[in-house]
Amino acid sequence: MTANHLLRELAPISDAGWQLLDQEARQRLSVALGARKLVDFSGPHGWEYSATNLGRTEQLPLNDGLVVAQRRVLPLVEVRAEFTVSRRELEAYDRGATYTDLDDLDEAALRIASAENVAVLHGWAEAGIRGVTEASPHEPVPRVEDFVDYPKRVAKAVTVLLQAGIGEPFGLALGPGHYNAVMESTERGGYLLSEHLQRILHGPIVWAPGVRGAIVMSLRGGDFLFESGQDLSIGYSHHDADTVQLYLEQSFSFQVATPEAAIHLRGSGEQ
What we know:
alpha+beta, 4-stranded mixed sheet, flat, Major capsid protein gp5 fold, single chain
């Protein structure tokens, strides 16, 4: 369902054009939103939804003999990535063109997905979000010189989590550099490195642009909580004779309920 505040009805875009844009955005975002695949997702609760209930209170000074406490909440953060689409390209699509240049939309989708991945997995102090690696009490697993030894590194991370009482299955979020290396590598004997890692994790490996290094996380549920107000949607800003100015927008909050349920694998250059 499209929210009215997105003002899509004011854009010079046909119904078929909107279907094209929405489909392109979904395809790009479903690949790039790696962090969402490893956390619990609640919502979407709507654009008007403003804050996550933390279930806690903060005591205020006594007032005429009364005990006063204020409810604590985590405000949702609104995130927008702007992009433009050529009116000529949209008109060509309506006439049956088989190719439409939507590179600016693709770039905006990657940008906003990366920002979400970073907020969830590394934190966003200005938005009051404490990320997974920030919250984890475990010492990060150091990098390895030979990528063929990567399974030992992941196995060590899994062992640390198991010893902390965290149950499997586990997922592995990989930044682009680590992901490419894992997917392109074979071990001695010709076995795919990715298949070996999945056997250790008993869970998925996800591409998470924006992530530094890699993160092993429990997928048992209840440890990492992503709350969506408005899920990612395309809205209209303005247009001129040549282009339409649009944006991808969402609102969300994130909490770590069990800090012990994840461990960071450092990337190159990290101390």
